[in-house]
Amino acid sequence: MTDNQRDVVSAGFSLAIVLFALFLTQRFILPLLWAAILCIATWPLYVRVRMALKGRAILAAALVTIAMAIVFITPLTLGVTQAARQAPALAQLVANANTEGLAAPEWLHRIPFAGDAIYNWWLATLGQPHGLAHLLQDGSVGRMQTASEVLKRVGSGVMHRLVDILFAFLCLFFFYKDGAALQRQTDAIGAHLIGTRRWTLFSLKVPVAVRATVNGLVLVGLAEGVLLGIGYQFAGVPSAMLWAALTGILAIIPFGAPLAFGAAAALLAWQGATIAAVAIVVLGVVVLFVADHFVRPAMIGNATQLPFLAVLLGILGGVETLGLIGLFIGPVVMTLFVTLWHEARALREARTLEPDAT
């Protein structure tokens, strides 16, 4: 066997091991990615805590992991608790809407230009028995005939996500504890594959992109949820805290916040509080405009040196392709792509100048 053949066999053997490992752990890849993103975003905090504890990595990893769990799980727990209080009534509403149809509200006629069309669409879809199942095109919805079935399916999904969250925080602890060794090993492999200079150039971009995306999406989205939650409280939206939590989660996704405050405004209008509904819509539009046109582009684009269009394409393309995790992976990929673009341009310009230098 020649050296080239041996290299091909060795590469194939290594690739087979990697693929088989991914196959075995595919169920846990998503929690691992969430843990990795959170670890990269909060790594400077862990380093400061470890230094304050005089290098005790295990204790520092445990404390920062607990702190992150409190920060993320506490709002989630409050939202789930609030949702649980409303769950029986909401489940009964969903079951009745699916089996009997949901009556179209008369105020739809008062919507300018499209009110009659929306009213007729509602009658033809949601107003018909099993119209909700046909609208969502999901066989499981059609089987939700009673409130208990709705609660059972929702509860199963919540427990599944809870297991993923707990596993992600377990992984986060080990990422903190062994992060330095993992980074050294990753740097060695990357430098071996694409060269030290290129690996250093690209690897430095990833933490910056992740932290900027987390700050620009998560923190700004939660701030939107807080501001609109205050508005919900003053406007008299039922379960304002639950609506605020839902708004904060949806606000992380571009153009997701209007779904939340639009639904809250529709609920107020359904109850006859038209002025309060209009106020919520106006407040939501103002907050969304400031956040999406000024705050987020400044936080993400300035840190990653990406144009706003590249940031937007990375976020929306990531969500469309990978789901919620794509919110953070998309901007990272676009950052690496733009870095590659600049590197290729610089290399081309250097080659152009070579004859002149000679």
TrEMBL record:
Q: Which family does it belong to?
A: Belongs to the autoinducer-2 exporter (AI-2E) (TC 2.A.86) family.
Q: Which keywords does this chain's UniProt record carry?
A: Membrane, Transmembrane, Transmembrane helix
Q: Which InterPro entries match?
A: AI-2E-like
Transmembrane ranges, per UniProt, are 7-23, 29-46, 58-78, 158-176, 208-234, 240-261, 268-291, 311-341
This protein's superkingdom? Bacteria
User: Has UniProt tagged this entry with the keyword Kinase?
Assistant: no
Question: What organism is recorded for this protein?
Answer: Massilia pinisoli
Cellular location of this protein?
Answer: Membrane
Coiled-coil regions, chain positions: none
**Protein name per its UniProtKB record:** AI-2E family transporter
Check the record and name the PANTHER family matching this protein: BLR8064 PROTEIN, TRANSMEMBRANE PROTEIN
Membrane topology value: Multi-pass membrane protein
